[in-house]
Amino acid sequence: MSELTNLVAERAVLAGLIQHGKNAFIDVDGSIHEDSFTLEENQIIWSCLKKLFEDSDVVDLSTLYGAAKAINLDSVFMDRVPKDYYKRLSAINIKRENIKHQALSLVKMDIARQVDRTASQIKSNIREITGDETISEIISIGESPFFDFSSNIEGRVENDPEDIGENIDEYVQLLIDNPKEMMGISTGFSRFDKSIGGGLRRGNVDLIGARAKAGKSLFADSVALHVAGKLGIPVLMLDTEMSREDHIHRLLANMCDVPINDIATGQFANSSGSQERIKSGAETLKTIPYKYITIAGTSFDETLSIMRRWLRRDVGYDENGISNPCLVIYDYLKLTSASQMDNMQEFQAIGYQMQQLVNFTIKEKVPCLSFVQLNREGITRESVDVISGSDRLTYYCSSLSLFKKKSEEEFAEDAGESGNSKIVSLLTRHGGGLSDDFDYINMHLNGEYARIDEGFTKSEYILASKKQKEGFDNEVDDNEEGFITEEDEDPAKPF
């Protein structure tokens, strides 16, 4: 069995640093470290060189010993680094451009040793399995450590800054030759897409906060139906509360124009027309790439494993190893298992989940739409602190929006014509948000038919009203009520 070491490369790197000084050190510092070396004397010399190059570029036995003394390694240096060993290193002739190549070899061997240790730990953990665990839990024991490990090592090599203008002409031409409607996947709500920066982007988690019973799950299903049904893009719904049957009822009500209660109770069978529409909708649901799973009682490591398996089995990767277009919907971000606490407070645990979720989307290059519950203050206030653990969540998310019922005052002010709900854009990394801090997107939630329609923004209504008073046509009056439906966007609706 290989000892997973390359002493030739270790000596070559140290010799190169002794010969070429601080500039050569800068080339490799960050990609390698003390543990990249396996021989103790090499580890000591590296640590001393690192300290020496903080203040000086002159490398000899005297300055190296001085650096050792500064980091309290002088006695160890005298015991473990013979003078003739240093002289042999100094005598090695190596070109500066070859130092990075030898350093890369050390990086690879270091990674191999970490893989070996991780595998040993997994083997130890596997031996503690009792048989009471779920299959997903068992799989996650093997998958999660390697996922965490691979996330930590990415970017260790060849991660140097680039000139901002390098190859920019080619990039601009690429943009010219490949125009597109938006950067990410459309949610089906055009104004919301624009407010967050052009849809749901790869490597991003977009958060929507809502109170209980405000319609966040209905919003999630509306997005899923648009993405999977209309766009044909695979969707994975991770649900913490609702059953598969609940989702089916909502989807069929939305698609078939049959009241959700009639579907849930089977009363739709009393109408031949409704029965035919439901059967047709059911056939459609068989064909769309919409996967559902409940994660109630599931550890977050298990959830990550579920997502990875879905990517491998249902989504797939292109020739460059990048996942095909897809969308993860997480409804909603909360503790799903008491074991997730691990001496953390709840908001800390949820913040940790958010961090891991973002790491997953970045590594796998997938978009995620996640929901989070607002506290009681979220009924009347519209700021980031109405979300539990808001600091961690807002730090990692790409956008944060609120989906909530309109107040009586707002409903009266809008004369009831602009919907019963709204989306407020609070934070956005990529988009311009809305026109001002008091603006919102009007939404109409129809619970009977499990449908949400997007209306115009408050500022658009104000502008239209102003133009009407001044004698101009209402430029935003696309339809009588001011709402954009799927039929308005595309008469060839697949459902």
Task: Write up this protein.
With 495 residues, the protein is of the alpha/beta class. It folds into two domains: 119 residues, DNAb Helicase, Chain A, CATH 1.10.860.10; 300 residues, P-loop containing nucleotide triphosphate hydrolases (Rossmann fold, 3-Layer(aba) Sandwich). It is built from 20 helices and ten strands. The radius of gyration is 29 Å and the shape is elongated. The C terminus is likely disordered.
**DSSP helix fraction:** 40-55%
Order of helices and strands: HHHHHHHHHHEHEHHHEHEHEHEHEEEHEH
The CATH homologous superfamily of the largest domain corresponds to P-loop containing nucleotide triphosphate hydrolases
CATH C-level class of the largest domain is Alpha Beta
* Strand line-up across the major sheet: 3-2-4-5-1-6-7-8-9-10
* Strand fraction: 5-15%
In total, the number of strands is 10
Number of helices, counting only DSSP H or I runs of 4 residues or more? 20
